[in-house]
Amino acid sequence: MKILLISDLYPLKSDSTIPSVLEDFSLALNEKNILVEVIRPNFLFNTFLRKHKIFKTGIYYRNNIKIYNRNFLTPFLFDNLKLENNFDVIISHMPSGHIYADLINKKLKLPRISILHYSDYRVLKEFKYSFYFKKRLKKALKNSTLIGARSHFLKKELKADFILPSFVEKENIKEKKTFNQNKLKIITLSKLIKRKNLNLVIKALSKIDFDFEYKIYGKGAEYNNLNNLIKKLNLHNKIEILPYINHDLIFEKLDENDVFILPSIKETLGLAYLEAMTRGLITIGTKNEGIDGIIKNNENGFLINPNVEEIKKILFEIYNFPIEKKEEISKNALKTIKNYEKEKIITKYVETIKKIL
Questions:
Q1: Does the pLDDT at position 37 exceed 90?
Q2: Residue 127's pLDDT band (boundaries 50, 70, 90)?
Q3: Is 39 exposed, middle or buried (0-12, 13-18, 19+ CB in 10 A)?
Q4: If you average pLDDT over residues 52-76, what whole number do you get?
Q5: How many C-beta atoms lie closer than 10 Å to residue 268's C-beta?
Q6: Are 67 and 12 a contacting pair, CB within 8 Å?
Q7: CA-to-CA distance for 251 and 272, rounded, in angstroms?
Q8: DSSP 94
Q9: Are residues 128 and 276 in the same domain?
């Protein structure tokens, strides 16, 4: 089988502004002897607004996967890409990917799967996209053979046919041995941007009277604002912002902590939540966002509305849980995350693709 993957959310060279999730899927498919080639259709105005790096139009290779990088001033007119029609299926992600896939499939005439992210939800639901992208995206989705979604929330809201969640490596799943006593150790791994709502976590922690330690690993535009807030609230002895760490060190840092929190909004899914659950951390996410449906409130983690009072309340409750309650939630998280092992997710994904061929 050979897949043509189309999305502007695929990394080229070294680019921390693009998540690796689509590359991870592509490499996992390669392991099953399924070939993947990629087209990146970049509407340059949109690329600039999202602060992604701009690379020249041309052919690139990354981890032995061929990538056609295409830049457009208008989406997506005057394209002269010549492509051999030796693919079995087209799979697209993100609005630009779906629209471009719909255009080129007029010639290729292949089965086509569109997989929805939060960006698609915004285009379909927010008024500012009504005049142009919304109409084209709706048409592209109507012409799809099958529609997937990256989370339970998106599947429900946009009436997709199946869910394609992120996956974790089986070897990273490890039972948590102990919880820290008399101190709550909290961690966040995230870009430092406004929609992650880390300022709310810091403000909530300024209102609690028990002992805690909070470490934030990440970088981004909000670094100075968050650091200034920590100093203003006199929390510099308890809260620390640290640089991104290499992926092979993430689990070591997770193991040192009890709670992972990320009250993010407009989140497609968030691999960081899943990675926290692989180590049995008590994981806190946001209601009606990408992690909702994987985390079940008060069972294998917690879901909150992103505001200071709810964050303060849940952290206070977790601190006061008896050790048996913490261990129960931790074990439930591990039980849940085993359903998201790479082999299980990719096997099911391949079965879904084969059904339409």
A1: yes
A2: confident
A3: buried
A4: 91
A5: 26
A6: yes
A7: 11
A8: H
A9: no
**pLDDT, tens only, 185-196:** 999 999 999 999
Total number of domains constituting the chain: 2
Domain identity same for 149 and 228:
no
CATH number of 267's domain: 3.40.50.2000
HSE-up of residue 119 (Cα within 13 Å, Cβ side): 15
In contact, 283 and 302? CB cutoff 8 Å: yes
Any long-range contacts for 247-252 (C-beta under 8 Å, 24+ apart)?
250/189, 250/275, 251/172, 251/174, 251/275, 251/278, 251/279
SS3 percent helix, strand, coil of the chain, rounded to 5, is 40, 20, 40
Strand ranges for the chain from DSSP E: 2-6, 35-43, 58-62, 65-72, 89-93, 112-116, 146-149, 162-163, 184-189, 212-217, 239-242, 259-261, 282-286, 302-304
> Are both 144 and 259 inside the same structural domain?
no
State which residues form the domain around 82: 2-167+341-355
Contact 253, 217 (CB under 8 A): yes
220 and 147 both lie in a single domain: no
The pairing of beta strand 65-72 with beta strand 2-6 = unpaired
Whether residue 84 sits in one domain with residue 20: yes
Phi, psi of 19 (to 5 degrees): -65, 160
Both structure tokens of 327:
């261990």
Q: What is the 3-state secondary structure (H, E, C) of 184-238?
A: EEEEEECCCCHHHCHHHHHHHHCCCCCCEEEEEECCCCCHHHHHHHHHHCCCCCC
Residues 53 and 136 in one domain: yes
Among the ranges given (122-126, 154-158, 243-247, 251-255), the one the predictor scored with the smallest mean pLDDT: 243-247
Rounded mean pLDDT of 39-56?
84
Considering the domain architecture, whether residues 82 and 20 belong to the same structural domain is answered as yes
> Given a cut of 90, is residue 48 above it in pLDDT?
no
Residue 342 near residue 349, CB atoms below 8 Å? no
- C-alpha 105: how far from chain center: 27
- Is there a single domain that holds both residue 209 and residue 277? yes
